[in-house]
User: Fold this.
Amino acid sequence: MSRQLLKGNEAIAEAAVRAGLQAYFGYPITPQTELLEYLSLRMPELGRGFVQAESELAAINMVYGAACTGARVMTSSSSPGISLMMEGLSYIAGTELPVVMVDVMRGGPGLGNLGPSQGDYNQIVHGGGHGDYHCLALAPSNVQEAIDMTAEAFDLAEQYRMITWIVIDGLIGQIMEPAELPPMQPLKTSYPDWATRGAEGGRKARLLKSFYVDTLEEEAVNIRMLKRWQEAREHLVRYRAYYMEDAQFAVIGFGSAGRIALSAVRAARAEGIKVGLLRPLVISPFPEAVVREVADRLEGILVVEMNAGMMLDDVLLATEKKTPVEFYGRVGGNAPLPDEILEEIHRLAKGPLTTSGHPRDRWFNRISKNN
Amino acid sequence: MNIRQEMEMEEIIYRRPSTLTELSTGYCPGCTHGVAHRLVAEVIDEMGIRGQTIGVAPVGCSVFAYKFIDVDFVQAAHGRAPAMATGIKRALPDRIVFTYQGDGDMISIGTGEIVHAATRGENITVIFINNANFAMTGGQMAPTTLPGMKTTSSPLGRDVEQMGYPIRACEVLATLDGTSYVVRRSLHNPKNIRMAKKAIRIAFEAQARGMGFSMVELLSTCPTNWGLSPVQATKWLEEKMLPYYPLGDYKVHPTLSDLKI
Assistant:
């Protein structure tokens, strides 16, 4: 295979097709719509399932039904649509089904705007729907990573029987970059022993549900789910480290924010500042052990996000307030410019640094003077 | 001839359908869910489709339908059964997929899903139980509650000026081109139960023939929440519900009208 110029959303769609996607259900919403459009032609062409649902609410419940058959299924949406899907996601989680979700995040809250955002971090990493459940979430920062992660997302979802997210924003969804697609994988031919595909040959009927009247039975299901989550926390630790070997300072950011921060880190390095970048590739489970370990060796950390400090809270938990942490964020559908982050790196390198107070408060005090 | 020999000579004309589990239903005395379950199980037996059938259970009294109808089952969120059935059917187009939904589930919270499944001509079958109230939560007003009917959330009777009018689901859905078979039957007496059975069979046959969306509405009793005895409830259904919800065929694809069951 050779590299092609591919648009992020379409690349994710084709990567899913090649990973053996059997059914897709979606609803139009910018900046995600190319995914739906691409698959509206591609899936029927291959004789696979495609429905443009009447709402995100219906789309996620179609995903729920198709996932019950053990098929590889996916939907995609953007923030307001993802909010609407949360009921179905809680049911899917409670039924312990593997599904792949793509969230092309946009500015919010509410209808917000189409600008790039990471405002869904808490909704995806820390909850969203009701009840105790966790999802896996992968955060690519370019089209090639989006392709690779989509291909793997189906395997991870099945391995852990968990909802697995590809979390991007319009920057990555809409950008065109050279990237290579993987070869076409054959469709699944064998299905797990829980799949409801019809009790053929007189076998015992199967039942898939998220409904346990007996509270002790429900507790046992919750604990079974937690066990898989703990396994994921142990084994699914993925990040990229740039210039970290001799770093005195580090920027931590994921997705687009991490990608933009890399430019700032390179500029700071050119000035002689010993700063590195830690970019989590998997944001759920959050790589807390890695952050804790690097934090011990650092004089200060700068967290950069396109929200008001959602991953920041996870960084603070990991560092246990032993290492000074600062925060820089853009909210409401805006991405930081490299120069803005460089200025924050300068501030970090100059000090003074502190472990008292909250980095969000310091950031907010700074920006509120200008607003 | 002893009794055993006599029994062996006799032809069995009535037995528990093999697709009905041996559990006793947990429904209230006089509730017609058990009858509806049995009719669905009989049809699955007669068509020999137990191994190809997947049911979608609703939220409501019949949330436990999966305990009694012995096929692969999934349990939907409230009102979302038609969307879930769509997902199953699109993943497995050669299977028989049906939803079993109450009136609160299907035509209140699930109105969007049922209308769009129908208009897409989704090749699924819907068994729609209409007992004019939200029964599982204790008898609140549903969209199907009759004008003037008292429920726990319309204690003075449904005032249509304030609470609107009941929805006649068959009449609404029959206007959609995607539907192949939309009929209303009732479970208030043996004759109507036989007619309901036949309708359920035709609805499943429509799906087996790939003809698109089919639905059988079954007017049903809810003695507990209606505050009536089982016998009174049957009478109330006949006297009050039938005039508002006329029995009949609202949409029958021409091919189906020739079907000999």
